[in-house]
């Protein structure tokens, strides 16, 4: 009984930290190592009830040191439109300290809130997560993966 409980708990922890499969959608400045979405794994599409929040964690290595701003953003592509979702916290520089002074693997976790009433249409959509830099919001990295909104 005790052992079974421990195994179940361990199984849940492993499921929570399993990296998911994603596509690289461009950007200059980072190489992404892994993307984790709270409660999701790579063996099925990530299911997210509309209105909920999920923590998205990205591990990446920077190829550039000079960033003075980095903002994390998330979008859903729906009917050919891109809908922005709230990300908190979204100031990556505040967390890492900018400009980045060395080249190393860094982790950033933020909560993505699936807020929009338009998302009440359930179905499989692409979620895009990226970091943008500067006033012109140049893309520093971009990953995308399917989510099943429910
Ligand atoms: C959802 O969040 C986005 C980005 O912050 C905002 O523009 C939009 O108005 C929000 N939608 C709703 C229904 O609150």
TrEMBL record:
Q: Which domain of life is it from?
A: Eukaryota
User: Any transmembrane segments, and where?
Assistant: none
Residue ranges of domain MD-2-related lipid-recognition in the record: 22-147
This chain's source organism reads Exocentrus adspersus
First and last residue of the signal peptide: 1-19
Matching entries from SMART domains are given as:
ML
**Which keywords has UniProt assigned to this entry?**
Signal
State the name under which the record lists this protein. MD-2-related lipid-recognition domain-containing protein
Pfam families from the entry?
E1_DerP2_DerF2 (PF02221)
């Amino acid at each position: 009984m005790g052992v079974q409980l421990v195994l179940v708990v361990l199984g849940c922890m492993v499921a929570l930290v399993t990296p998911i499969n994603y596509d690289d959608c461009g950007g200059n400045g980072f190489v992404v190592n892994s993307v984790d979405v709270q409660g999701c794994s790579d063996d099925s599409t990530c299911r997210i009830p509309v209105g909920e929040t999920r923590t998205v964690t990205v591990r990446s290595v920077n190829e550039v040191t000079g960033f003075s701003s980095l903002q994390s953003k998330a979008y859903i592509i729906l009917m050919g439109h891109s809908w922005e979702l709230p990300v908190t916290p979204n100031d990556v520089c505040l967390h890492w300290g900018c400009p980045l002074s060395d080249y190393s693997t860094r982790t950033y976790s933020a909560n993505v809130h699936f807020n929009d009433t338009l998302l009440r249409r359930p179905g499989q959509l692409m979620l895009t997560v990226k970091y943008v830099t500067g006033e012109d919001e140049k893309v520093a990295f971009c990953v995308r993966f399917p989510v099943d909104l429910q």
